[in-house]
């Protein structure tokens, strides 16, 4: 039997650990603020010193903040808030009852391990009396893409500089002393001092610009924000330019990229209209304008700051001859995700990071919405299982996973871990399951009530459940389903057993683990069961387009009657709506396999074909079934023409290959090449102008595997394309196959091809194409070129936000690189 783990996997794990320890370790303790004092308004004036000669040390800033607050309890004798890496130079606290008296007793105390700043007071604060804490301070414009940070770009041969913010999740405190938790919402008024030749942007429109009477600076004052959390405050100072389209929606970019803003603005305009109507809450009731900012250096994919959303360039700017159709669809998906945050995350914010799924789960769910007027989003709902469900199931299958509501947050690392597939992908998958369980129109009604009830406030899972109860019926058992999947970690595998006459079914459930683990579930199975909405379809009963819940599984085992299926299949979890895996008895598996191998796959839906592939391969991986059953089923792929099942198959093949020594994968590679022969001939190498995003993605997927596994025709044609390009760099390799062609060229061309493509990378100024070239360079396979590439990755030639991704690609493109990376 093939084992899912090998020594190579352990080496890769050590490499990941080393990289994380070197660059991303953050063990600061999380101590929650009390609610003795509540802020209502911040007024901040900041001067960023971006260049030498700006009046202060280069890449630093001076600022002053006045925080308006009230004591909510009696006998409040201290004020505690957050700060990090700030130099406090002066502080005063006055209150409305005596504006002349400073109530601060002494210089504040600071706890580095908790990042808490505490002011002891001369007298207790009067309850509900407005007080004003003014703090003068300075700080660094960082180089780690957190807080107020620095970035650079080239324009006409000159190096340009900018300063921009990234405050989520706990970095507002790097810019200003503040109550840096989501629940402490307030209004913010920002004043930015900047040079005449630069511009500043923030969440709100510019109110006025004044000339500084004492220096060669201008002061930009922005309108006061509505109630937002501190991590939502954002601004930028740069030489960027902007373009505003319909409904005060625009894009801010470096000047040479302004010609590529049309698509991003189009997506944003249409998505805002769609979401405003869907949630029955117009965007304009929350914010008066919307700018999308494309940044050269950005640690995240994007950040939903109200009114000033920041993005990586590759995820916001569509450059036609540099981005594939798949990349174009991804841009639409990312923009939709960030815009959905205006309702889930901005207008209504999770009460703390323990409830992050209320922000990110909903944004991930709605990023797959078909936006009217944006053709590229029409296929996104079909890809939800790839982007969310299967990603979540993999991450949630270990004994170290955590629930959607995770109350065990003790360090900043714990918060960072929340920003992963559980909050995003599992959150979205559970929301999708709940929507189909109670009905999508009922879910829409519940969400409208939730937004109306919690607008400009924070929310917890209890607030959402209250609204779901209002639209659900008793039979839905919404409380049971909700708490099973929200409060419990992991998920179940449901095993289906038919009786001899195949007119009755018994379902049993237990928690699924990808590896054999020691678990309390084994000794106490009732502590690990879920209330599961069960859907099913057979050739004789129901339709794949009907996702109505047929049975609510309330116990570890249930039995019920079905329309007899004596000679055909029955499939559970229609369109993979439910967040669980399915196993079957031997006879039922064989009936399903027969159906898949029949003409037109016997009408089995493509999402269920993908689900069956993923369930079978993962059940084999965890020793629920033998691998021979899984590989017998995969034979049907010889007649599969849809992208989504193939995507799931390739992900599972790669999982095996990356964890198996190269000399043991020869038979598997031969097997995969036999499976893809027909679909390779159908798709061919060269794209057709009529291709849509799914066909484009499918071709790229099959070509990567065909060339990687040595299919002769693929290698010959890719080599031919690369040689044409190498001889004439004006030759246009179609963008949808460019990465595959470049990869073959580098893998087979040695040092000469590597150096040729590296020079192209150095000349390239579009991030999308830079990523394509870096991923191809990661195909290099000699000791010398791998070492050379590693040197380049960790030099200034590769931007900080690309280093980890490029390093990972180098490891995964070729298992032989694991040892080389470790030696390096």
TrEMBL record:
At the top level, the lineage of the source is Eukaryota
Q: Which residues form the Peptidase M1 membrane alanine aminopeptidase domain?
A: 264-481
Its keywords, alphabetically, are: Aminopeptidase, Cell membrane, Glycoprotein, GPI-anchor, Hydrolase, Lipoprotein, Membrane, Metal-binding, Metalloprotease, Protease, Signal, Zinc
Q: Which Pfam families match?
A: ERAP1_C, Peptidase_M1, Peptidase_M1_N
Paste the cofactor note. Answer: Binds 1 zinc ion per subunit.
**What does the record give under GO molecular function?**
metalloaminopeptidase activity; peptide binding; zinc ion binding
Q: What are the residue boundaries of the ERAP1-like C-terminal domain, all occurrences included?
A: 569-824
Top enzyme class, one word, equals hydrolase
The site feature described as Transition state stabilizer is recorded at: 424
E.C. numbers: 3.4.11.-
In which compartments does the protein localize?
Answer: Cell membrane
**What is this entry's stated membrane topology?**
Lipid-anchor; GPI-anchor
Residues noted as binding Zn(2+) in the record, renumbered to the chain: 337, 341, 360
**Cofactor(s) in the UniProt record:** Zn(2+)
For this record, the Gene Ontology CC terms, alphabetical, are: cytoplasm; extracellular space; plasma membrane; side of membrane
For the biological process aspect of GO, one term held by this record is: peptide catabolic process
Record domain Aminopeptidase N-like N-terminal: where: 39-231
Q: Identify which residues the record assigns to the active site.
A: 338
> Which CDD domains does this chain map to?
M1_APN-Q_like
What does the similarity note say? Belongs to the peptidase M1 family.
Can you say what this protein is called? Aminopeptidase
């Amino acid at each position: 039997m093939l084992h899912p783990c090998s020594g190579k996997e352990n080496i890769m794990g050590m490499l990941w650990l080393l990289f994380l320890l070197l660059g991303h370790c953050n063990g600061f303790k999380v101590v929650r603020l009390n609610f003795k004092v509540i802020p209502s308004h911040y007024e901040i004036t900041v001067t960023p010193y971006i260049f030498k000669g700006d009046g202060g040390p280069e890449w630093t800033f001076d600022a002053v903040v006045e925080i308006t607050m009230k004591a909510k309890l009696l006998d409040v004798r201290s004020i505690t808030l957050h700060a990090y890496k700030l130099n406090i130079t002066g502080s005063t606290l006055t209150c409305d009852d005596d504006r002349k008296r400073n109530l601060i007793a002494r210089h504040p105390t600071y706890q580095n391990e908790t990042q808490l700043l505490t002011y002891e007071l001369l007298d207790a604060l009067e309850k509900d009396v407005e007080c004003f804490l003014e703090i003068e301070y300075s700080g660094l414009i960082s180089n780690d893409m957190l807080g107020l940070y620095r970035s650079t770009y080239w324009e006409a041969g000159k190096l340009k500089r900018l300063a921009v913010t990234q405050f989520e999740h706990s970095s507002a405190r790097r810019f200003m002393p503040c109550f840096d938790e989501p629940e402490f919402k307030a209004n913010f008024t920002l004043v930015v001092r900047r040079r005449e030749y630069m511009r500043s942007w923030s969440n709100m429109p510019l109110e006025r610009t004044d000339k500084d009477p004492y220096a060669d600076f201008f002061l930009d004052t922005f309108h006061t924000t509505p109630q937002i959390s501190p991590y939502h405050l954002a601004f930028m100072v740069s030489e960027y330019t902007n373009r505003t389209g319909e409904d005060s929606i625009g894009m801010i970019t470096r000047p040479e990229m302004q010609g590529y803003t049309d698509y991003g603005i189009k997506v944003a305009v249409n998505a805002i209209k769609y979401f405003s109507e869907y949630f029955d809450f117009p965007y304009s009731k929350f914010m008066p304008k919307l700018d999308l900012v494309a940044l050269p250096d950005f640690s995240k994919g994007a950040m939903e700051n109200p009114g000033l959303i920041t993005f990586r360039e590759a995820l916001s700017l569509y450059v036609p001859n540099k981005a594939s159709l798949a990349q174009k669809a991804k841009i639409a998906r990312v923009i939709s995700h960030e815009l959905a945050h205006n309702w889930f995350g901005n207008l209504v914010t999770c009460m703390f990071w323990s409830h992050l799924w209320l922000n990110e789960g909903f944004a991930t769910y709605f990023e797959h919405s078909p936006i009217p007027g944006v053709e590229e989003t029409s296929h996104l709902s079909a890809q939800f299982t790839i982007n969310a469900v299967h990603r979540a199931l993999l991450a949630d299958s270990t004994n170290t996973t955590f629930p959607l509501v995770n109350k065990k947050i003790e360090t900043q690392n714990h918060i960072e871990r929340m920003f992963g597939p559980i909050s995003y992908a599992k959150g979205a998958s559970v929301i999708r399951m709940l929507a189909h369980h109670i009905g999508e129109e009922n879910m829409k009604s519940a969400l409208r009530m939730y937004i109306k009830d919690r607008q400009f406030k924070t929310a917890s899972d209890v607030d959402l459940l209250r609204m779901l109860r209002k639209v659900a019926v008793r039979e839905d058992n919404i409380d049971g389903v909700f708490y099973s999947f929200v409060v419990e970690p992991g998920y179940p595998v449901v095993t289906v057993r038919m009786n001899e006459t195949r007119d009755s079914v018994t379902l049993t459930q237990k928690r699924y683990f990808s590896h054999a683990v020691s678990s309390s579930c084994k000794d106490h199975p009732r502590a690990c069961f879920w209330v599961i909405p069960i859907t099913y379809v057979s050739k004789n009963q129901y339709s794949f387009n009907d996702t109505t819940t047929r049975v609510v599984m309330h116990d570890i085992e249930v039995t019920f009657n079905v329309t007899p299926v004596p000679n055909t299949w029955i499939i559970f979890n229609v369109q993979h709506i439910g967040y669980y895996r399915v196993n079957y008895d031997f006879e039922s598996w064989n009936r399903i396999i027969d159906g898949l191998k029949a003409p037109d796959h016997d009408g089995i839906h493509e999402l269920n074909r993908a689900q069956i592939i993923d369930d079978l391969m993962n059940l084999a991986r965890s020793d629920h079934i033998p691998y021979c059953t899984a590989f017998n089923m995969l034979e049907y792929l010889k007649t599969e023409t849809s992208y989504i099942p193939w995507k799931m198959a390739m992900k599972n093949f790669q999982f095996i290959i990356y964890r198996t020594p190269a000399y043991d994968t020869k038979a598997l590679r031969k097997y995969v090449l036999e499976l893809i022969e027909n679909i390779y001939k159908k798709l061919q190498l060269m794209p057709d102008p009529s291709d849509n995003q799914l066909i484009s993605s499918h071709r790229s997927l099959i070509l990567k595997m065909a060339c990687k596994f040595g299919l002769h025709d693929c290698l010959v044609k890719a080599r031919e394309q690369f040689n044409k390009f190498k001889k004439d760099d004006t030759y246009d390799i179609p963008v949808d196959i460019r990465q595959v062609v470049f990869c073959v060229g580098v893998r087979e061309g040695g040092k000469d091809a590597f150096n040729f493509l590296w020079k192209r990378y150095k000349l390239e100024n579009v991030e999308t194409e830079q990523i394509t070239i870096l991923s191809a360079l990661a195909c290099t396979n000699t000791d010398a070129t791998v070492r050379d590439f590693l040197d380049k990755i960790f030099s200034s030639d590769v931007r900080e936000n690309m280093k980890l991704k490029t390093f990972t690609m180098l490891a995964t493109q070729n298992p032989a690189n694991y040892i080389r990376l470790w030696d390096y």
